[in-house]
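Dear Dr. L.,

I hope this message finds you well. Following up on our conversation about the binding site, I have prepared a predicted three-dimensional model of the protein together with fe (ii) ion. For your records, I am including the exact sequence and ligand specification that went into the calculation, followed by the structure tokens. Please feel free to forward this to your student if that is useful.
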Amino acid sequence: MTPRAQHADEMTPDLQRLVDAEHGLIGPEVYTDQAIFDVEMERIFGRSWLFLAHDSQLPKAGDYVTTYMGLDPVIVVRQRDGSVKAFLNMCRHRGMRVCREDEGNARAFTCKYHGWSYAADGRLTGMPLKDQYEGIVDKAAWGLKQVPRIESYRGLIFGCFDEDVPPLAEEMGDIAYYLDASLDRSPAGIEFVGGIIKWRIRANWKFAAEQFASDMYHTYTTHKSPYSLLSADDLDHDPLKDTIHGHQYSSPHGHGFGWWIAEEERPSDAALLPTVLLRYIEKTRAAVTERIGDDRRRMESHGTIFPNFSWLYSSIPTLRVWHPKSPDEMEVWAYVFVDADAPDDVKDAFRRFTVLTFGASGLYEQDDGENWVTIQNNLTSPQVRKTPMNLQSSLGRNGSSPDSDGRMGPVIGEMASRGFFHRWLSLMSSRDRPQTHNLEEAMIDAAE
Ligand code: FES
Ligand SMILES: [Fe+2]
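The resulting structure of the complex is given below.
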């Protein structure tokens, strides 16, 4: 056992004291402690499927993007045979970042330090003054370190550092059914439009991941001011009225999803939507209903695939990754997605509307970030850090469902946050990967 693994095992009693997911009690140190963060990087981010890119970002051989898996920088590259590989963005000579661009197309990556170069498939192909290495360094053994598992779902490419991780589809489970309500509205699928909007928030990554999994509750208070603005032109329309009738899904894998079905044939944000989008929604209504059913067509939703990939869908189609940077800082990467066969003016209108609402300075986004930063600041004080927080909304009012691998409950509730922490604790306190069937049993036995 490595010293780090031993250290992580010794931490288990503390983690069990801090996280009582079944009773909805959370110790604030899970958001502040450097040692816990370090174990998260190994046991959560080192063993979970993590979102890397969408197919539409890598249309041609040699196309690449750089991103992060937890703290680790990676390069994601389309191969000549159409497959995708990902590599640690680390020169095998002295550790330099081998690719310093956000995206591009390359036949090779050449390190800017001493000039080692690597093919797009990761092989080490060139070393300046190679005579110095003749008979010493076997080039075949010094290629870029490859991310061992890469799989896709509807064009979303995920990677995992753990060779033994179950297949992506198995780990996603029924969250895929709900994700399809956003991604499978058109036979053409989706594409990303515009660039990635990136910004940093001085708060722990879990605040964002949990909120997108489970927290519709906050919208009534946190977003009151933009919601009043939305209904200003239409006093009979309360955009929050419909949300109370929704549901929440909590997966044994830690994913969460919440949705409501708008009572009227209009999205909640209709008052702000440009005509081009209202017309598009109207025009595609019958075809989308045919494809995914009326209920899923009308779902307005939020979700998280454990640990750090989230999305929103209403008239605001955004995917995002909460990249952890330190216990008290995350970097948000927000993407706008659209039906791939939508007209260009519709794609652009969705992009603009999403930036207006959920861009870095968007109407709603700023409200959320402000909360998380204020909490994180509060947690720097010693008495606050020792005082438990409450995640008990709807505790005991949720049930299993014959049609689903998880549990179902009311949309205003914190069941999926408890499910998120149940999975978190299970991974954090296990040296070996916890078996999913055990997780399911644990979930069914839980107090709910
Ligand atoms: S660190 Fe990359 S070539 Fe030396
Ligand atoms: Fe919010």
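In brief: The chain is about 30% helix and 25% strand.

With kind regards,
A. P.
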